[in-house]
Design brief:
The complex is a heterodimer of chains A (837) and B (98). Helices cover 36% and strands 26% of the residues of chain A. Chain A has 837 residues and is α+β, with helices and mostly antiparallel strands. Chain A folds into seven domains: 167 residues, Nucleotidyltransferase, domain 5, CATH 3.30.420; 184 residues, Nucleotidyltransferase, domain 5, CATH 3.30.420.40; 93 residues, Immunoglobulins (Immunoglobulin-like); 121 residues, Substrate Binding Domain Of DNAk, Chain A, domain 1; 75 residues; 66 residues; 54 residues, no CATH class. In chain A, strands 1, 2, 3, 4, 11 and 12 form a six-stranded mixed β-sheet that branches. A five-stranded mixed β-sheet of chain A has the order 15-14-13-18-19. In chain A, α5 packs across α7 and α19 runs parallel beside α21. In chain A, 37% of the residues are buried. Chain B has 98 residues and is an alpha+beta fold. In chain B, 28% of the residues lie in helices and 37% in strands. In chain B, α1 packs antiparallel against α2. Chain B starts with a helix and ends with a strand. Classes of the chains: A alpha+beta (837), B alpha+beta (98).
């Protein structure tokens, strides 16, 4: 065995639908089929189109764009010419390409879809039922040219039938089935026989120029154009749309696209709207909205569908003497979603239709199922190990490009040493937005890279051999930051956060608005909720407090850079708890902070620009914060004394003294004080907040971590008793970056504990045993603890009945009501925070 | 949702819409952004065959100096583990500049 053969699979597993219009690749893994997606754009289908542009070779979507405009160099539907002596002259290459070579290029491109780091050596490729021996062999050869060592062919209707047969229902499959395949551009129908667990095609028919595209064009020509003519003055409208030099040629493409959208919509709805803007010949601007009903759409396509039914009837008639009824019609191809197709088939043939398989992927899925049962002569290799010839290893790359730029395009060049002859390269952007296509490798290569604005753009350069198979050459990633690295623009040095209330933990915490290193200018609109009612005329205030620092620290130790204070005295109506505040925060390149707050309940807008050279200090807020810090410090002090941590205790005692001093000075300060006293005090307060953060921090963090792990263990225990995937997923989300948040601030750990507690409760409230225990705790309490004895009695009666029925919802509701009935409930003093949550 | 917001924004552009509508539209954009979706309108940008973020319909006869003249559907990226990933190609009409 070759050392590269690391995937020990005895079956082929990989199946390819090499279609006339689109191609797909799928893999069968222990009976489960996965259809691979294009890494560029993440679509399952790859248009079977190859384009030879001046500098590069394009395969798929990009090639299809040039199909009409550059027909000499772009090729599609070459599958129809497989096995013929016909070859296509490519002006841009000055050479010929055969349909087999073009098919091989599509197959190679499909290999790039495989994200599992596997390089299959064997593959199943589907062919139309009508392919003769020469055409079949040509397809096989295309597979070999694409680098496969073993190619097994499978007829398309059989593949579709396999996808249907393996659907997992218990329906009796033995007998005759009609496979009706109406795709984007082609139509095929085949009679398939299932006998003794085997399938074979008895007969087939088809039309290579009939499909969904025709229906889109019919919508434009028969419905939209007449509608436009009825709404404005147009002469020679059809030509002005369809001719490349026509003045409405751009509109034509928009209309075809919208017609397709409407067609898809009409498969689920009775009506669809098409909206577009245009200008008539008199220069009058028109905003046109037309409604198409399913009935009207059906009328225009009916004739074409009738044609397909005639083909199907032809086959059935030919075999009527053979005996045996056709059981059902299996629908394949995207156009079979159209309800009229289904109803006309059923009526026209008198046979039930079966739409249980995905019409777009059925052939590829069937091919993969087949591949999963077929023994492979070669084992699957790892792409990492594939193609590491000595010459490839000799290739050396020296790259040159600007790493930071403000331009939307960046020039890239590289010097290559080693054997470049007959080889290719390709550059792709890892977000999927750029692909150079295959380009011939030379000693010096150049490319203009398109960049996504204000982002880190990462590109990958890959080399390929003459057969366009990837070469294992180690090349570093091309990383280019697009952003404003000019005189004033710069990345943010710290996180910019908004202070919000955390009523559960009785404190405030920071929510990141902009992360450290984001490139200026930045702007964000968020919606927050008012966390307590601000009464009109009161001294209560709503604070929009924007701070700079670390998101993991407390608000008190961050630098306030902008605050809007909305006082109860300044408002025309109460700001009700739960109503929305729309906040837009913007930081310009020159670091001005613009805050705009819109209170939807009052329809009032507050906007302020904060200059980075002056700090905005709200004295009453400062007092509250200092007071809060003092209380925290005293609380921590008793803990330190209990823990006999005298060193930390001494430092904290000094902090408490200073905080008392600050508070005293703040009480003497007027709100409109013009001196810099408030700035000094604010600065001191921040230092004190930091020192409280530090004093005994290790002990507190340790306690919190223990608390977290305690909750985690008990939650995991309860989770193991219920079978609930959503709760399991939530558990995974909370614990995912555990190492990271456990080394963060206390506030962060507390929040995670709270999330875990909430999850734990969500699990427990679904656990009847737990609820029964909880319920009993309320039942055995002294009846004197409850406000209303009669009501208690009633609740216990209902609770016992709910317990008997094991109804968790009912029992939970009763527990809540019993809690409400308690006379002394533990309540906490409300938090006087920002008023935002 | 992102496509509808884009459509709404496109229809309001160049006109003088009600400020409340603009605010609601901005708010919807904010919600989309918050959910990790980055909505991108490439109108007016240069078009090259290397741009796989859009599906282009080429109008006119020219194949050089193309710009994006009309955006029917915007480009959508999502943030996945701090990395952007294309989830919807834009649907555009391109034509010769000028």
């Amino acid at each position: 065995m070759n050392s590269n053969d690391i995937f020990m699979s005895s079956t082929i597993n990989f199946g390819i639908d090499l279609g006339t219009t689109n191609s797909l690749i799928a893999k069968c893994d222990n009976g489960v089929v996965d259809v691979f997606k294009n890494p560029v754009g993440h679509k399952e289908t790859l248009p079977s189109v190859v384009g030879f542009r001046k500098e590069r070779i394009l395969v798929g979507d990009k090639a299809r764009e040039y199909l009409e405009k550059d027909p000499g160099n772009v090729f599609s539907c070459f599958k129809r010419k497989m096995g013929t002596s016909e070859s296509f002259f490519v002006p841009n290459l000055g050479d010929f390409r055969t349909p087999m070579q073009l098919s091989a290029m599509v197959l190679k491109e499909l290999r790039n879809f495989i994200y599992t780091a596997e390089s299959p050596q064997s593959v199943v490729i589907t062919i139309p039922a009508s392919f003769d021996t020469v055409q079949s062999n040509a397809t096989k050869q295309a597979g070999y040219d694409a680098g496969f060592k073993e190619v097994v062919l499978l007829q398309e209707p059989i593949a579709a039938s396999l996808a249907f047969a393996n659907k997992g229902n218990d329906m009796e499959k033995e007998g005759r089935w009609l496979v009706y395949d109406l795709g984007g551009g082609t139509f095929d129908v085949a009679l398939v026989q299932f006998r003794d667990g085997e399938m074979r095609i008895t007969d087939h028919e088809g039309n290579n120029y009939l499909g969904g595209l025709d229906f889109d064009n019919l919508i434009v020509e028969e419905l939209i154009v007449p509608y436009m003519q009825s709404q404005g003055h147009y002469t020679d409208l059809m030509n002005s749309l369809k001719s490349a030099s026509g003045k409405r040629n751009a509109l034509y493409y928009e209309l075809v696209y919208k017609a397709e959208e409407a067609k898809i919509m009409l498969s689920n709805q009775q009506k669809a709207e098409i909206e577009f803007e245009t200008e008539d010949d008199n220069g009058e601007e028109q905003e046109l909205i037309m409604t198409i009903s399913r009935e009207v759409f059906n009328d225009i396509i009916r004739e074409r569908i009738e044609e397909t039914i005639e083909f199907a009837k032809m086959i059935i008639d030919r075999h009527s003497a053979d005996g045996g009824k056709v059981k059902e019609v299996i629908l394949i191809g995207g156009s079979t979603y159209i309800p009229l197709v289904r109803s006309m088939l059923q009526e026209g043939l008198g046979i039930p239709v079966n739409a249980s398989v995905d019409p777009t992927t059925a052939v590829a899925i069937g091919a993969a199922y087949f591949a999963g049962t077929k023994t492979a002569s070669y084992t699957i290799q790892s792409t990492l190990a594939a193609n590491t010839d000595a010459k490839a290893e000799e290739l050396q790359v020296k790259m040159a490009y600007q790493k930071n730029t403000n331009d939307r395009e960046e020039y890239f060049s590289a010097l290559i040493t080693g054997d470049t002859d007959g080889r290719f390269y390709r550059i792709t952007r890892d977000d999927g937005g750029f692909d150079s296509g295959l380009k011939p490798l030379a000693k010096r290569i150049e490319e203009v890279l398109t960049l996504l604005p204000n982002a880190l753009n990462q590109f990958h350069l890959k080399f390929f051999d003459a057969e366009q198979m990837p070469l294992a050459v180690s090349i570093s990633t091309i990383s280019i930051v697009h952003g404003k690295y000019s005189l004033y623009g710069q990345p943010l040095p710290n996180d910019i956060c908004l202070e919000v209330d955390d009523n559960l933990n009785h404190l405030t915490h920071l929510e990141v608005l902009f992360e450290k290193n984001e490139i200026l200018p930045v702007k964000k609109t968020i919606t927050k909720t008012i966390s307590r009612t601000i009464v009109k005329g009161s001294t209560d205030q709503l604070l929009i407090n924007v701070l700079e620092g670390s998101r993991y620290a407390t608000a008190q130790s961050n630098l306030p850079i902008g605050v809007i204070c909305i006082n109860g005295k300044d408002i025309d109506r109460d700001l009700i708890k739960g109503s929305d505040v729309d906040l837009t925060i913007e930081i310009t390149e020159s670091r001005d902070i613009k805050i705009n707050a819109y209170l939807s309940i009052a329809d009032k807008e507050y906007a302020e620009v904060f200059s980075p050279t002056s700090r905005n200090i709200n004295i009453s807020r400062l007092k509250d914060e200092t007071d809060y810090l003092l209380r925290i410090a005293n609380k921590n002090m008793s803990k330190l004394v209990d823990a006999e941590d005298f060193e930390a205790g001494a430092k904290l005692r000094e902090t408490i003294k200073q905080l008392e001093q600050i508070l005293k000075r703040l009480r003497l300060l007027k709100e409109d004080d013009v001196t810099d006293e408030k700035y000094k005090l604010e600065e001191q307060k921040r230092r004190m907040a930091l020192s409280i953060d530090m004093a005994g921090k290790d002990n507190r963090i340790r306690e919190l971590r223990e608390d977290y792990f305690g909750w985690k263990a008990s939650t995991a225990h309860y989770l193991s008793r219920v079978d609930n995937e959503a709760l399991l997923r939530k558990f995974g989300q909370i614990t995912r970056d555990e190492n990271e948040f456990l080394s963060g601030s206390e506030a962060i750990i507390k929040r995670r504990i709270e999330e875990m507690r909430q999850l734990s409760w969500d699990i427990r409230k679904k656990d009847i045993d737990y609820l029964a225990g909880l319920y009993m705790l309320y039942v055995i309490r002294d009846p004197e603890d409850y406000k209303d004895q009669n009501r208690l009695k009633l609740l216990i009666e209902r609770g016992d009945a709910a317990l008997q029925r094991k109804s968790t919802e009912e029992l939970l509701a009763i527990i809540y009501q019993m809690y409400d009935l308690l006379i002394n409930k533990e309540t906490e003093e409300p938090l006087k925070g920002t008023g935002l949550s | 949702m992102a496509n509808l917001v884009f459509e709404l924004d496109k229809r309001m552009a160049g006109k003088e819409p009600n400020p409340a509508l603009v605010r609601i539209c901005d708010k919807m954009k904010g919600v989309i952004e918050e959910s990790g979706i980055y909505l991108y309108n490439p109108v007016g940008e240069k078009y090259a065959e290397t741009r796989t973020d859009v599906e282009a319909n080429i109008s006119g006869t020219s194949l050089t100096n193309l710009i994006i003249k009309e955006v029917i559907k915007p480009v959508l990226y999502i943030d996945e583990n701090g990395k952007r990933k294309l989830v919807q190609k834009g649907v555009v009409v391109v034509g010769r500049e000028g």
